[in-house]
Design brief:
The structure is a single chain. The chain is built from five helices and 17 strands. The chain is α+β, with helices and mostly antiparallel strands. It has three domains: 46-55 and 268-359, Efflux pump adaptor protein, beta barrel domain (Elongation Factor Tu (Ef-tu), domain 3, Beta Barrel); 62-93 and 224-263, RNA polymerase II/Efflux pump adaptor protein, barrel-sandwich hybrid domain (OB fold (Dihydrolipoamide Acetyltransferase, E2P)); 104-216, Helix Hairpins (Orthogonal Bundle). It is rod-shaped and about 180 Å long.
Length: 366
């Protein structure tokens, strides 16, 4: 019985081996590749890593940073929106700065009113009061002089009628009255002359200083509103409502570091630039001019697009890893070459996207 089981298992194993051999030896039809691998379309063409950017005359994207620190209270724009120069992009809480600005404005207005008051002197009502004081002083002099004349006449006729002391007191009262009249007249002349020139100059300088302080505070208050520096399109918004930002930007919780509040690109969404980085060992093989052909290959697809040469950034810089912006090799440098293309229908291209670029025809290697 045991031998029968062993013989059966052996036969089943042999049969399974024959079936497996037949199955695995069968040639299956190869599946078509998802996309064709990139190939150099030019004889001796130069390869370069490229990155899609918005089309701009200079630089790359425009990074937006605030000039003051504060809490974000409003973001009236959205990613992908076209904006004009001067449009509000973001607002920060400016309650303290606004109160300071209003205080300085009030102080400047008060100083200006004081200056106007000095320039308007003499005030007619005040001058009339001083003139009345002069008249009163003159009347007092007349009264005291008449009294003295009467006493002097009596004293001259009969000295026993009044004493010498009474006559002296009357004389002193006349002198005091004359002195008061002199003071009143000088007060009138002083009031009539108006404000002293030095007082007016001091008040004018005070107005100027407070106006400048108010202007500086108002300019600082305006910085709490971040505006578009140029015409363009919002590519990315890194700040969020309620987040705290500073001149260093805002904290990116995904990347774990500071980032600009926003990134702006060129205003024409249908025109893009491609910034290519050519290794320094290939620079001498380039032949760049307005007619230089180049093609862009979108990674992971069969899409190939022609490029138009724009310019060379004439500075060879250290090679970087485009995906993380870190130095890749400090002993290798690259030359930035900028091309332009129109966004084709049906092809998804976005600023920041990495592409492969071939530039040709190139000069023959020496």
């Amino acid at each position: 019985m045991k031998n029968r089981w062993l013989i059966g298992l052996a036969v089943a194993g042999a049969f399974g081996g024959v079936v497996s051999a037949v199955f695995y030896s069968t040639q299956h039809k190869a599946q078509a590749p998802a996309f064709q691998p990139t190939a150099n379309p030019y004889p001796n063409g130069v390869y370069a890593n490229g990155i899609i950017q918005s089309d701009q005359d200079n630089g790359t994207n425009t990074a937006i940073y605030p000039e003051v620190a504060g809490t974000v209270i409003d973001i009236p724009v959205k990613e992908g929106q076209a904006v004009k120069r001067g449009d509000t992009l973001l607002s920060l809480d400016a309650s303290v700065q606004r109160a300071t600005t209003e205080q300085l404005r009030s102080q400047a207005e008060a100083a200006r009113a004081t200056l106007a008051e000095l320039k308007a002197q003499p005030r007619p009502e005040s001058l009339a009061v001083v003139a009345a004081q002069v008249d009163a002083a003159a009347a007092t002099v007349k009264l005291n002089q008449d009294t003295l004349d009467k006493l002097q006449g009596l004293y001259d006729k009969a000295q026993n009628l009044i004493s010498k002391e009474q006559l002296d007191n009357a004389t002193n009262e006349v002198r005091v009255a004359n002195a008061n009249l002199t003071v009143a007249r000088r007060q009138y002349e002083l009031a009539k002359a108006g404000a002293w020139s030095y007082e007016v100059q001091s008040a004018a300088l005070q107005v100027e200083a407070l106006d400048k302080a108010y202007g500086a505070a108002a300019a600082q208050l305006d910085k709490y509103t971040v505006r578009a520096p140029v015409d363009g399109r919002i590519l990315a918004i890194e700040a969020a409502l309620g987040s705290y930002v500073s001149a260093a930007g805002t904290y990116n919780t995904i990347l774990g570091g500071n980032a600009p509040l926003m990134l702006m690109g060129g205003g024409d969404a249908d025109v893009l630039s491609v910034r290519c980085y050519v290794d320094e060992i290939l620079i001498q093989r380039l032949a760049l001019d307005a007619d230089t052909p180049a093609r862009l290959f979108v990674r992971g697809t069969d899409v190939s697009l022609p490029l138009q040469f724009v310019r060379v950034q004439p500075y060879v810089s250290p090679k970087i890893e485009l995906s993380s912006n870190r130095t890749e090799r400090v002993d290798l440098r690259v030359l930035p070459v900028i091309f332009r293309l129109s966004r084709p229908p049906g092809v998804q291209l976005y600023p920041g996207q990495l592409v492969d670029v071939y530039i040709g025809p190139a000069r023959a290697a020496p």
